[in-house]
Amino acid sequence: xxxxxxxxxxxxWTVLEQFDLxxxxxxxxxxxxxxxxxxxxxxxLEYYDESYDRVSVxxxxxxxxxxxRMFYYVTTTDDEVIFxxxxxxxxx
Length: 92
Known about the structure:
Blueprint: H1 21-25, H2 80-91
């Protein structure tokens, strides 16, 4: 299978920096300690399974369906964020 790049590299582009893909696997993320926000309730977060952070081609892990969730399907015409971005873009 031949994979096409999502961006075609142009000959006139200047190389700023190169990364070895193996270096990315050595990267660590420091997660700060969570703190409560005073004065309100802003929803809930469920447990995050950190084993998904270590998924690779060699260590694949199938996704699991969440049947006990409610999904709200909002069209782009009803999405308030997209409307605000569009309004700001048009008014500039």
